[in-house]
Amino acid sequence: MSESNSQSFKSPRFVLTLVGIIFLAGIISVAILRDRIVNQQFRSVSVTGQGRVSYNPDLAVVTLGVQIDKVAKPEEALNQLNTKVNNIIKAVRALGVKDENIQTQNYSLYPQYDYKDNVSNVSGYNANEQLVIKVTGYDKDPGLLSKVIAAASKAGANQVNNLSFDASNMNDLKQAARVKAIQDAKDKSTVLATAAGVKLKDITSWYENYISPAPIADYSKGGMGMGGGAVAETSAQVPSGSREIVIEVNVNYNIK
To answer: Rounded to the nearest 10 degrees, how much is the dihedral formed by the CA atoms of 215, 149, 225, 131?
Structure first.
């Protein structure tokens, strides 16, 4: 090596340049290492499990309505409404329905307008009241619900707006379905991981979706549910049978 080259390596400028390169390389290495530590690429998989629990409802809730149309005076409309509602309450009480299981949901009074030659005039008054009636012991006596609807219609109810079935231990039933859903997800994850040739680590999260039972409807026969129309006095035919709770759980796993 010539003396000039040897002197250039020893010059302050060369030394500073070399130190700068080493320092920059260190910064880049630390940045790459930090990125790998902080921004790790987690691999994960989601599996959906489903849990089903069958039950026989022991509660039935029916919403009955009384509609009064086009009465000359508002007080007359309310008098007719109150008379029919009181008769309905007496009728269902006679079948064993307790007072705490009879509730008023809506109560309204409003004018009826007729239009002629683009002019509106009050032609009468309408009144409406909704009663929510809870029938207990449905699993032991399913026919009681039909009797309640028939007795209420005979006493003056001319609307059936809703009918639902429930269980007094619904929270316990949902929990049982939840546990089944998680177990189903775990079983599926084991099979899928084996097929994919991977191993699963811990569960990172999960969420559930409650699928409510299909509602029961169609009371058109005999006039039930026909707002303001006449209701047949024959015994209403109400569907019965077991119900099913369905809960889906989506479970997220980390892959090793």
So the answer is: -90
